[in-house]
Amino acid sequence: MKFNKVRWGIIGCGDVTEVKSGPAFQKVENSELVAVMRRTGELAQDYAKRHNVPKWYDDAEALIHDPDIDAIYIATPPASHKEYTIKAAKAGKPVYVEKPMARNYAECQEMIAACEAAGVPLYVSYYRRAQPRFLKIKELLENQAIGDVRFVSTTQYQPVLVDEKNIPWRVQPDLAGGGLFFDLASHTIDMLDFLLGPIKDVQGFASNQAGDYRAEDIVSGTYLFESGVHGVGNWCFSAFENVDANEIVGNKGKITFSVFGNDPIILTTASGSEEFSFEPAEHVHQPLIETIVADLTGEGSQCPSTGLTGARSNWVMDKMVKNFY
Hints:
With about 325 residues, this protein is of the alpha/beta class. The chain folds into two domains: about 5-125 and about 285-305, Rossmann fold, CATH 3.40.50.720; about 130-280, Dihydrodipicolinate Reductase, domain 2. Helices cover about 35% and strands about 25% of the residues. The protein has eleven helices and 14 strands. The strands form two sheets. It has an eight-stranded mixed beta sheet with strand order 8-9-10-7-11-12-13-14, with helices on one face. Strands 3-2-1-4-5-6 form a six-stranded parallel beta sheet, with helices on both faces. Helix 5 (about 80-90) packs parallel to helix 6 (about 105-120) and helix 9 packs across helix 11. The mean pLDDT is about 95.
């Protein structure tokens, strides 16, 4: 399945598509954003007008079956990822789906099977896999800058950011799969998969300590990578400040970095410390979309974030919260 130019349609043109992703479809070479869809037609029309998109819809099926659209970007909450992915696949359209890939690993498997049966590729928007910042960390690891990796630790916590009178979908398990752990930690877990390889065993505990909503608000876990590397993570969404700290430790040094911030990557070895700084991308999805378009047009190597890699993060998260659900 190769295209001269990839003509995109977006299902769910909400906040994430305003700057992070939507404009990138217009800026990437051999890519074009043709149509957008929202259930509220007036909002879809407004988005199309502001972003110079030719078509808008209030019906996902109509967008999926538009003959002028080659590929579908699904930017809805996770509850509808499976439904729209399967419908797009049956229509013969490649799919780029937001993260987390679905509400659980079982849904991910159904999505993968549908796309394989239809012969269409499935990509997942773990866009950090294509960003220079994280490619630098991968390069340091591959070049043995810290020697043999022994373990990785993650600590992420933040204050409660939820208005009890207006509970957002991100902390409604029926829509999101879980709480903010699914929304945010999925990026970190995917990044560890990218940097250190797949995780083969997981133990975890999830709780709701603050009682501000129904989903879990704290998760702690340990994991073992196929490579033999050990990992430990703590995520809390009812603490007193914002912390995002990750440390990969080897027998000759360590790499310290944040997943969500833009502070420098720090390489520490016996000879001292070295910092690596990167300017934040205007449209954070753009580097990954470039790899997808290159893949679909036959102009480049395979996209690093697929249904197979994306599903692995859901598998890990399912294991870590199973005691809670």
